[in-house]
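Support case: user asked for a sample of complex input and structure output to validate their parser. Sending the pair below.
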Amino acid sequence: MSWDVAIIGGGVVGTAIARELAGYQVRSVLLEAADDVGTGTSKANTAILHTGFDATPGTLESRLVARGSTLLREYAERAGIAVERTGALLVAWTPEQAGRLDAIAVKSRENGYTRLRSVSVAEVYEREPNLGPGAAGGLWIPDEWVIDPWSVSLAYATEAVRAGVDLRLRTRVTGVSVLPDKAGFELAVSPGADPVRCRFAVNAAGLASDEVDRMFSGGGFTIRPRKGELIVYDKLARALLSSIILPVPTARTKGVVIAPTVFGNVLLGPTAEDVADRSDRSTSAAGLSALLADGRRILPGLEREEVTATYAGLRAATEHADYQLGVYGQYVRVAGIRSTGLTASLGIAEHVAGLLGEAGLPLKPRTDVSPGEGTWAAPPRMPYLGDAGTRPYQDAARIAADPAYGVIACHCERVTRGEIRDALASEIPPGGLDGLRRRTRAMNGRCQAFYCGAAVSAQLTRALSRNEGRDGR
Amino acid sequence: MDADVLVVGAGPAGLTAAAELRRLGVRRVLVADRETVPGGIPRHSQHTGYGLRDLHRILSGPAYARVLADTATRAGADLRAACTVTDLRAGGDGLSAVLTSAAGIEEVRPAAVLLATGCRERPRAARLVPGDRPAGVLTTGELQQRVYLAGERLAGRALVVGAEHVSFSAAVTLAHAGARVIALVTDQPRHQSYAAFRLGAALRWRVPVWTSTAVTRVTGTDGRLSAVDLAGVEGGPIRTVACEWLVFTGDWIPDHVLARTACVPLDHGTLGPAIDTGMVTSAPGVFAAGNLVHAAETADVAALSGRHAARQIASYLAGPPGQAPSPVPVVAEPPLRWISPNAVGAGGVLPPLGRFTLRAAEFRPRARLEARQDGRLLARSRPLRLIPGRPLHLRAAWVTSVNPGGGPVRIGVGRPSVA
């Protein structure tokens, strides 16, 4: 069997491209090495829906972040993905930093974002009375929001799968041969499956994108993973702040952010450390203590709150300042997306479809999938995991219709047995506990499974063995 | 729906309180527990030793949990499992609570509320232990449920973090489930359990206790725990120990979420709701008992704390409405970490079991606890051994000599005698 397009990598970018192509009469396969979508860079980030105000003007990243930002806001609304319109307060903590605020405002306008405005020290503390002393000025960016990051990849993938995209998990591309007569490529995959033939290939392999690029005889960039460690505070800390608190960025990093999460926690991080090992998502004593020091200074009340989780993510950075995105014959490289992939995903996907079109892939809109606006099938309705809206346990009508939504299984996150059951029966069911956590938040809370771990694991094990039984028949 | 008293949590404290409230003639006693089976922590603590002080017999944890639940039900309490109190308001126009269960969402307006939500262990993340995030890292609570309620077998090597009573209990559970316990690891200079436990563990399972040692890193391979790095608390070389299970024990924190969301003020020491000797919080009509106010005492002590609270609630319900005089705060001073209750209530009511419960922050071989108000010595204990994490008690007969108009009572450690 030969596919029109093979997309390598099922992170937020790869799934967005699969979803985009699913709107056309294009047969696509999505190849993901891990056992779930969105498990690489897409899994561990600050979950901020950026405006792109601080991008480097004139870059492709600037353009696609701005475009993706607009599209994702609409998409999240339609898919029922939790978003909180928190806004961001960028705070200068020294006179030197305050002196750079004007330049940031100018840059924002160059990036096409005009709703940023400067705020006085008094307004900084009016907005965020729990900030530590010493603020020297600030900027207010009303359209920096927070989003449920995990449901985004999952929504894209679910929509793509419903529209006929073949999602192959646990499928790693190990080699590429070019077929004669511009017939495309044959991708060797492991473990032990038949090779995948495709006319066009898209490399959205994130942290492995340079390795995949070399298989296509590419080159010119190397992934230099930049590790970011983060601390998640207890939901009881959420009252300490109302918006995202940004620092004045340096040439190297956007700096340590304190942000609410849509789940009702407070996030502190990330650090920025260049690392060699692409699988090293470990936290370090030095990283965590540096974050604690920043937290103490910026939002002193955090020190009295409990920590719920710590984790580290790897940004797929390269030696270049901009995205590494381009078409080479029938191969499209989508690399170096760094830390902006979540926000830019739909912009990148649109751009990539355009590139494929230019390269000769016919892009005829589909007529058989329920046409909404433009060419799209309606996005799937995702389980709402936010803290600000109504969750199933709070919905009397839903419990009346299905009592499983009234039985809370994970107490810290108030995840009901009904939600866990739904996730286990969804189109893209979790392959293990981590996948179940991302889909439902079960066991992600303050007790880290002290209360619910045994019961939730047992529910998962039962479902997995049922699925295996089904696959076996 | 109405209730005279809503008891939140059907562990030893809540169940014992419910039975006692009924015995004292309180009509509508509603007990809500979010777990599917009532009984609290003893449900999954298979070892024996439960019921000594309250039932005057010795039972296993699950048997004890069943006896308490049966007693409360037979006494006429309305016991609801798989029913979560998702909201509690203790405002100007009385108390109101939201109960969520398969039956739907119900509002309850009780005359009094007893918070008996217990405590849990701080997990690895809250202790900021760095490294990977593999499977195989647990708390004792999760371990016991997986082994005793879900019947899991655990193969491989295990390390237990902590050397308190509960840590030895975790080691027993691991051994029962088939794991080989390599050691108990504690950052303290010595173990904090009874010598008999320590000796028993050493003889029966040959489990050593590695003292003054901290877990400095967790390493995973393919998502499973593969090794743990250990280092001396004073520095020194790092030792890597291969293991498949790592169990964090003790380091208790009260489950105070409902109290905090209802704006019931907490005590900075216990992190449970601040209560006086009558178990009343600063919110009118809201009482607290059990390991929510002293994390963690044994189940029978929690049960008796619940019984004491029930008596106070019954007299509150029978008494005339009005503001009680302010209690006199009781403050623990270093090297003491906390004291419970946190104040002496009106009329010099005694705390549960006629004693205050304390925790020390340091080891001290012989220390006399002293209670002073405005410099006046109210009481001095006999010499006691201070051991972090281990219960410490101070007889409370002196509460009747507290000056209700005076300053806070300070509990400290007297200077060692010259001899």
